[in-house]
């Protein structure tokens, strides 16, 4: 009997430890999101970031090829075949679009999206440009300029920074980040696009493995229509939308030392009814319009800047990050269980 009680106690302790471990993992994931590092994981699989700049150092280069050999169906053969080739075709470098002021904004957006698409999606498992979301806008714009110079494949976060850079000379176009968190077959997936608003119509710029998860022409009458269109696109590839994070409008001043506000509104789709979800989206839309109408929104390039303003040095006090935790509006309390994996897909994960 005593032995039986001991076994039972050990089993209970093990369950408690597993529960605490799961909670710890979930907490770390949430902390990663708060720190802006959610883009370092893709469907539960971590990917590398080139933190050494360009040209790529030897250690990063070898790590990238080792990872390519690990994830590619042909394994090391594909890496050896490419690295050992002496007659590889020359890859054309996309030209940065030249946008005339007389060209209509929708046409300019299509041209920019075409350029982003020509850079191609980065499938190597190593992000070539390190993007720190806490950097001031001027630093991110310098990085975007480097992207156009190097013309390397990019991932979704890099496409957002590039989209901001290429639309800075369109003061009548408002830009704001839109982040998605989805669930499929036991893993969470994250994606980000650059939302745009022109003439009261919403659209987006970006890049993705999926055609319907990047560019959206500015034809949507409301922000909720745009988000619901993305939600439907996710549904078509069996992903369940979990969270939507909406940022504020980004300044058009490429020399601004302000930080991009990435998460002004965080909407937990599970805790909101359909109607409440729509209302929260429209509330965020009104918040952006109100901020612009009051003159507290992003300044346009035509506004004068003080000549003595420069990028902050490490020794100087950088702009304070807004306490987004206090600004976030809580969603409802509704709780639903995670959807089960689809049996007929045999564990195959659709990565978007």
TrEMBL record:
Cellular component, GO annotation: cytoplasm
Composition-biased stretches (Basic and acidic residues): 17-29, 324-338
Tree of life domain: Eukaryota
Sequence ranges of Low complexity compositional bias: 1-16
Residue numbers spanned by region Disordered: 1-44, 285-352
Keyword entries, A-Z: Carboxypeptidase, Hydrolase, Protease
GO biological process: regulation of angiogenesis
Any Pfam family hit: Vasohibin
MF term (GO), any: carboxypeptidase activity
Biased composition (Acidic residues): 30-40
Active site feature: 156, 191, 208
Stated name of the protein: Tubulinyl-Tyr carboxypeptidase 1
Source organism per UniProt: Eublepharis macularius
Gene of this entry: VASH1
């Amino acid at each position: 009997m005593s032995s039986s009680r001991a076994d039972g106690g050990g089993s209970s302790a093990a369950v408690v430890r597993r529960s605490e471990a799961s909670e710890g993992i979930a907490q770390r994931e949430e902390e990663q999101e708060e720190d802006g590092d959610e883009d370092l994981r893709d469907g539960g699989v971590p990917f590398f970031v080139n933190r050494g700049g360009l040209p790529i150092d030897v250690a990063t280069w070898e790590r990238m090829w080792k990872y390519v050999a690990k994830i590619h169906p042909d394994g090391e053969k594909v890496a050896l075949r490419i690295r050992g080739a002496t007659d590889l075709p020359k890859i054309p470098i996309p030209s940065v679009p030249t946008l005339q002021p007389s060209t209509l904004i929708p046409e300019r957006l299509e041209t920019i999206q075409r350029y982003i698409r020509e850079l191609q999606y980065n499938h190597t498992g190593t992000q070539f440009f390190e993007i720190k979301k806490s950097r001031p806008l001027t630093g991110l714009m310098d990085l975007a300029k480097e992207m156009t110079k190097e013309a390397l494949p990019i991932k979704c976060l890099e496409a957002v920074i590039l989209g901001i850079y290429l639309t800075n000379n369109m003061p009548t176009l408002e830009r704001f980040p839109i982040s998605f968190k989805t669930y499929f077959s036991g893993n969470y997936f994250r994606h980000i696009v650059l939302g745009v608003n022109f003439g009261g119509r919403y659209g987006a710029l970006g890049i993705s493995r999926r055609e319907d998860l990047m560019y959206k022409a500015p034809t949507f009458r409301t922000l909720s229509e745009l988000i619901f269109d993305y939600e439907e696109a996710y549904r078509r590839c069996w992903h369940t939308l979990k969270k939507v994070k909406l940022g504020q409008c980004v300044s058009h001043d490429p020399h601004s030392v302000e930080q991009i506000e990435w998460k002004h509104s965080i909407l937990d789709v599970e805790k909101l009814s359909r109607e409440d979800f729509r209302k929260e989206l429209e509330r965020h839309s009104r918040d952006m319009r109100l901020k612009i109408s009051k003159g507290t929104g992003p300044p346009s390039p035509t506004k004068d800047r003080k000549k003595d303003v420069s990028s902050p040095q490490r020794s100087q006090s950088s702009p304070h990050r807004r306490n987004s935790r206090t600004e976030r509006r809580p969603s409802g309390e509704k709780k639903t269980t995670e959807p089960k994996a689809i049996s007929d897909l045999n564990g195959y994960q659709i990565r978007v």
